[in-house]
Amino acid sequence: MPTISPTLAATIDKVTKRLLPFLLLMYVLAFLDRANVGFAKKAFQADTGISDAAFALGASIFFLGYALFEVPSNLIMHRVGAKIWMARIMITWGLISAAMMFAHNEITFYVLRVLLGIAEAGFFPGVILYLTYWFPSFARGRAMGLFYFGAPLAFIFGSPLSGLLLEFQGLGGLHGWQWMFLIEGLLASIVGVFAYFYLDNKPKDAKWLSGEEKAVLDQALANEDNAKQAHGPRGTLAALKNGRVLYFSLIYLIIQMSVYGVVFYLPSQVAGLLGTNIGFTVGLVTAIPWICAMVATYFLPRWSDRTGERRLFAGGILVVCAIGIAASVASNSPALSLIALCFAAAGFISVQPIFWTLPTGYLGGVAAAGGIALINSLGNVGGFIAPNVKTWAEATFASTSAGLYLLAITTLIGAVLIFALAAVGIGRETRAAEASGR
C-alpha cells in the first residue's frame, strides 16, 4: 500500500468525524421510512383489509418512482450542491412518510408509496456521489462502510421503536401504525432542516478545514479524477449507455433483491419463529441480525481497503449471504434460523460499500453523477421485483419457503457476476484510480 502523507491522513480523519455521523443519521431515517411498512404489515392489513398481494405491490411500488427520478435528482444535486438538495429530499420524504397515516385503502397506499419513492429519489446515490467529493478511493471503502451502518442501525434502534409505536393502538383515536408513520416521518423532516445548515458542498466550502487541509485533499481527489477520466466514460450520456455501468446495475439489482426480499418480511418471519405477534419483543429480536450486519460492515470494507481486493471480497460475501437466506427457512430450529438470518443480513449489508468502490473508482465528474444514479436506479428495481417474486413463488409452489429459496438462488447469481468482473475487464481502472489518489 503506497505511503499516504500525514496531512492527508489527518484531513481524511477530520472529514470522517465531521460528515459521517450526520450522513449516518440521515440514512437511518431514510431506511426506516422506506422499510417500516414491514412492521406495520399485520396491523395495517387487519385495519384496512388490504390483501397480501396488494401489500406486496404497495411495498415494492415505492421503487418505481424512486428509480424513475434517480438520475435527474443526482444531476440536479451535482449542479446545485448537496446543501440544498439533501435538505429538500429529507423534508419532502418525511412529510409524505408521515402522510402514510392516512393510507386507509389500496389506492391511497399505492399513491403515497409512489410519492415517497419520488421524494426520496436521489438521496442514496446523492450521498455516494457526495462521498466522492470528500474521500479518495483508497479511503472510500471505509467511509462507505461507516455510512452503511445506517441500515443495521435503523433496525437495531428502529425495530424496537416501530414495535413500541405499534403498541400506541387507540391513543388519541389513532391506530398504532398511524403513530409509527407520523412520528418517524416527522423526524426525517426535522433532520432535513438541520441538513441545510450543517452540510458543505465540497472541501473548498468547508470553514472547518484549514487552507493546507483543503489543498492536500483537493490534490488527491484531482489526481484520482484524472485517472478516472483516462479510463472511464466522459459525460452523462456516455455513462448512461456504458456497458460496464449497465453490468454494475445488474449486480446491484440482484443485491437489492436480496435486501428487500428479506427486509420487508423479516419482522413477520421473526414473529413466526417466536410464535407471537409483532410488537416490542419481536422488534428486539429482529434487531439481532442487524447487530451482526453492523459488525460485518465495520470490519469487511476496512479489510478490503487494506488489501485493495474488491471483487473476491464482494463475491464471497454474497455466497455466504445466499446460504444464510436459504438456511433461514431450511432449518426447523428457531435458533438456527435466526443465526442464518444473521449471516444473510451481515452479507447483503456489508457487501454494498465494497461493491460501490468499483463503480466510483471507474466513474468521475458529471459521468459519476449520472452513472452512480443509474446504477442505483436500475438496481433498486430489485426492491420492486423481490416482494412480488417472493409472493409469486410462494403461491406457485404452495410453500412459504419457496420465495426465500428463489432469492437465495438469485443472490448466488449475483456472486457469479461479481466473480466474472475480471473477465469483462473491470477492476484494473479502479486500482489505477486508487493508486493515483494516494
The major pleated sheet works out as: none
Distance between the termini: 9 Å
Instruction: Work out the helix count.
Output: 21
> What is the 3D form?
globular
| Helix and strand composition category | mainly alpha
**Radius of gyration, whole Å:** 21 Å
Describe this structure as you would to a colleague:
With 438 residues, this protein is mainly alpha-helical. The chain is built from 21 helices and no strands. Helix 9 (158-166) packs antiparallel against helix 15 (280-307), helix 11 (211-231) runs antiparallel to helix 21 and helix 16 runs antiparallel to helix 20 (402-419). It is globular. The N and C termini lie close together (9 Å). Residues 432-437 have low confidence and may be disordered.
Structure summary:
The protein has helices at residues 6-35, 37-48, 52-80, 82-99, 106-120, 123-132, 137-147, 150-156, 158-166, 176-198, 211-231, 236-240, 243-263, 266-274, 280-307, 311-330, 334-360, 365-379, 381-396, 402-419, 428-437. It is mainly α and 438 residues long.
List the helices and strands and how they pair.
Blueprint (H helix, E strand, L loop, with lengths): L5 H30 L1 H12 L3 H29 L1 H18 L6 H15 L2 H10 L4 H11 L2 H7 L1 H9 L9 H23 L12 H21 L4 H5 L2 H21 L2 H9 L5 H28 L3 H20 L3 H27 L4 H15 L1 H16 L5 H18 L8 H10 L1
